[in-house]
Amino acid sequence: MQGRAEATRRSLLEAAAHLFNERGYAGTSISDISELSGRTSGAVYFHYTSKEMLALAVVEAHFATWPQLIERHDSARLPALERLVRLSFAVARAFRDDIVVRAGARLWAERKTINETLPTPFVGWIATVRRLMNQARSNGELAPHVDPARDAHSVVCAFFGLHTVSDALQDRLGLVDQLADLWLLLLPSLQAGADPAGLVARARGPLPGADRTPVGAGRP
Amino acid sequence: MQGRAEATRRSLLEAAAHLFNERGYAGTSISDISELSGRTSGAVYFHYTSKEMLALAVVEAHFATWPQLIERHDSARLPALERLVRLSFAVARAFRDDIVVRAGARLWAERKTINETLPTPFVGWIATVRRLMNQARSNGELAPHVDPARDAHSVVCAFFGLHTVSDALQDRLGLVDQLADLWLLLLPSLQAGADPAGLVARARGPLPGADRTPVGAGRP
């Protein structure tokens, strides 16, 4: 029974994510979610209490996507800077393809219209990028002028700026190419003994020897 | 009479900008704007027809801020790359200090909840940055690997990413320092014969010999 309740919760969450992503928070009603999921409105309220709590659950599911992805990249036997660049491509693909990630991002952008406190993004990414840059520094991969404590913030801003702009110009399909362009600009500054084009070409592909299950596989 | 109607329109626009910036589009009513401006709701409707049209007017006033600022920087007798960096600091200060610019940015972020098509940002900035980078290329200021057609997009994304993140983390007061940090990361890649720290230190200040009137001066 536990498993079945969990499956119901998940199918409601995914239906909600589809609608929030398409129509936004204000444009989505509990009865829309009921209709798309094939469950009653009563079931939606039973599992999530309110539309606010459902939005919170989608944003939390968005955040829950990252630890596993980060861990998989942490454990790869590659230079730290290359793991960082690879991780960024994996995150960009999740933003392009994963409905829960996309819906969470849209809800977060609309946070001021949602009567529920959502978790704060960026802080965790700044810490993760700083950690990888510190490893790169220890390994002698970084140019001398690079300061991980300072530059991790700029790297995260540049990365999320791509999302803001590509969302605005409705060219999210170009996100992965735009990310490659961004690294071709950043890496000549970051890298000691730079080979930006080689690193970007390698990092766009999957992790060597990694589980190739795409993020969000199993989601409808 | 023309001048007085114009003054009324402007004072309504500024009252609306204050409220849109503080409370967002959904949280602001025509009667709030009437109250703050000391004019009747009838006057608001007479001059702007609807809350949607008032939001559109604020966003258009935001956009109208830039041509003059760009022109002032174009005419400075400085290397093109330094004009670009100076322009970015002027824009960042406008985002920090100018209520119409801030309100326009917030309304634009909330565009999916506003029943009126707003002008698209970023496109004009990408063209402006590309133009300045092309000048810098002609002057031999750019490193050989830099491609203005490609990299102008990344520079604009990185710049606006700062705004997204600083708005989220509520540290917009840190925007100018964060912009300096961003340039310290980007310039070693962009510049031929780099002196990033010197350029950033000079560019944070006003244009040499320029009119020092801050953007938004004369606004309440």
Automatic annotation (TrEMBL), chains A, B:
InterPro entries membership: ArpA-like, CprB_TetR_C, Homeodomain-like_sf, HTH_TetR, Tet_transcr_reg_TetR-rel_C_sf
Assigned keywords, A-Z: DNA-binding, Transcription, Transcription regulation
Gene3D superfamilies xrefs: Tetracycline Repressor, domain 2
All residue ranges annotated as the HTH tetR-type domain in the record: 6-66
DNA-binding region as annotated in the record: 29-48
Organismal lineage: Bacteria, Bacillati, Actinomycetota, Actinomycetes, Kitasatosporales
GO MF term list: DNA binding
The protein's name in its UniProt record: ScbR family autoregulator-binding transcription factor
Nucleotide-binding among keywords: no
